[in-house]
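FORM 7B: Structural annotation worksheet

SECTION A. Query
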Amino acid sequence: MNCTFCKAPLSNGRVNHIVDLGEHIIIVKNVPANVCKQCGEYFVDTAIALKLESIVEKARKNNAEVFIVKYDEMVA
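SECTION B. Predicted structure
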């Protein structure tokens, strides 16, 4: 699989996924992703994207301005 932006190869890795909702910033650490070796862009598969949506929704309900969680702990 290649990066849709720069066409370089992707490799399995882990990233910190940051969501800025204006009044909330949510950081999900150590998310499994396909990471571009050249530009650093990352892509997650559908199952992980759905889990990220669930994590973000839970974090929004927390009412913290900044919320940092570890992916593995939230999906366990």
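SECTION C. Observations
The CA atoms of residues 17 and 51 lie 12 Å apart. The chain has a mean pLDDT of 95.

SECTION D. Sign-off
Analyst initials: ____
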